[in-house]
Amino acid sequence: MNANFVAVIFARVVAAYPICDSLVKFRSANQLTLFDRPSKPGMTGYSLTHLKQLEAESIHIIREVAAEFENPVMLYSIGKDSACMVRLAQKAFYPAKPPFPLMHVDTTWKFKDMYDLRDNYVAKELGLKLIVHVNEDGVRQGINPITHGSKKHTDVMKTEGLKQALNKYRFDAAFGGARRDEEKSRAKERVFSFRDEFHRWDPKNQRPELWSLYNTKVNKGESIRVFPISNWTELDVWQYIHLENIPIVPLYFAKERPIVYRDGTMIMVDDHRLPLKPGEQPEMRRVRFRTLGCYPLSGAVDSNATTLPEIIQEMLLTTFSERQGRLIDSDEAGSMEKKKKEGYF
């Protein structure tokens, strides 16, 4: 089918249906837009940039889940990928609010700045329904990343906590912010990732995905993990945050912060729970975080990037992986794939 013909038909649809046109008009107030208006009077063509193509694909996936599943949920980890996911969900159903809740599986060890953004921006300013789930069994056992190590802490507070929440609320689909460029096990996972009744992932038994066609069939007790931004890169995420002016955790920007060195990784001293080793003294260093998790397990990087354009420039020049500072990725060989098989995000 001729591309110009498709563009003309779409332009007529937008003109005929005010609800479509509202997506364009929404841009002036909130910078939330799907398409660029023709630049000259009388023009009927629409031009989709690279980011808008990614956005359109993600919105299609989100709407597909809302239409096909009975009880979906969007997992919200407070990071930059989650920030993009929330904005995409807003766009997908504007002017209504997303027809599913957000859910944060809280390990109780996130950075203080992360909790501030979650409670003040998502819950209060956006007014979205937010479920916060904590594995109380793990809390009673005193599980933490310092004395029990990253593997035990992740298994109990994240993986088991997530499975508890999915079972408790009977969610049959869960959106996640994983991207294929992050890590090798995520690179081979489908957009619609099937999980059995125990929330386990079998990488050898994945469903084919042809073009934008997805198999949403699940039996009772089974579920799907859905990754709308699978095809995005870290650079795409930062460019989208800049384009949409999305609020993010201040830790992504460079600032003087108290740092200690642990096994070659710079760990920020965020509160009194991080015990100092004999002779260890925090030093102030200008750093930022490329990825955020539990603060004793998240390594900082040296940086002078204090604005979004500077972060984007840094991304264009870096030769290191985004997840180089995530200690949970190096528990053992193939640790991320093993975690996902057990039910991890």
TrEMBL record:
<comment type="similarity">
    <text>Belongs to the PAPS reductase family. CysD subfamily.</text>
</comment>
<dbReference type="InterPro" id="IPR011784">
    <property type="entry name" value="SO4_adenylTrfase_ssu"/>
</dbReference>
<dbReference type="GO" id="GO:0070814">
    <property type="term" value="P:hydrogen sulfide biosynthetic process"/>
</dbReference>
<dbReference type="GO" id="GO:0005524">
    <property type="term" value="F:ATP binding"/>
</dbReference>
<feature type="domain" description="Phosphoadenosine phosphosulphate reductase">
    <location>
        <begin position="71"/>
        <end position="299"/>
    </location>
</feature>
<dbReference type="InterPro" id="IPR050128">
    <property type="entry name" value="Sulfate_adenylyltrnsfr_sub2"/>
</dbReference>
<comment type="function">
    <text>With CysN forms the ATP sulfurylase (ATPS) that catalyzes the adenylation of sulfate producing adenosine 5'-phosphosulfate (APS) and diphosphate, the first enzymatic step in sulfur assimilation pathway. APS synthesis involves the formation of a high-energy phosphoric-sulfuric acid anhydride bond driven by GTP hydrolysis by CysN coupled to ATP hydrolysis by CysD.</text>
</comment>
<comment type="pathway">
    <text>Sulfur metabolism; hydrogen sulfide biosynthesis; sulfite from sulfate: step 1/3.</text>
</comment>
<keyword id="KW-0808">Transferase</keyword>
<protein>
    <recommendedName>
        <fullName>Sulfate adenylyltransferase subunit 2</fullName>
        <ecNumber>2.7.7.4</ecNumber>
    </recommendedName>
</protein>
<dbReference type="InterPro" id="IPR014729">
    <property type="entry name" value="Rossmann-like_a/b/a_fold"/>
</dbReference>
<keyword id="KW-0547">Nucleotide-binding</keyword>
<dbReference type="InterPro" id="IPR002500">
    <property type="entry name" value="PAPS_reduct_dom"/>
</dbReference>
<dbReference type="Pfam" id="PF01507">
    <property type="entry name" value="PAPS_reduct"/>
</dbReference>
<dbReference type="GO" id="GO:0004781">
    <property type="term" value="F:sulfate adenylyltransferase (ATP) activity"/>
</dbReference>
<dbReference type="GO" id="GO:0000103">
    <property type="term" value="P:sulfate assimilation"/>
</dbReference>
<keyword id="KW-0067">ATP-binding</keyword>
<keyword id="KW-0548">Nucleotidyltransferase</keyword>
<comment type="subunit">
    <text>Heterodimer composed of CysD, the smaller subunit, and CysN.</text>
</comment>
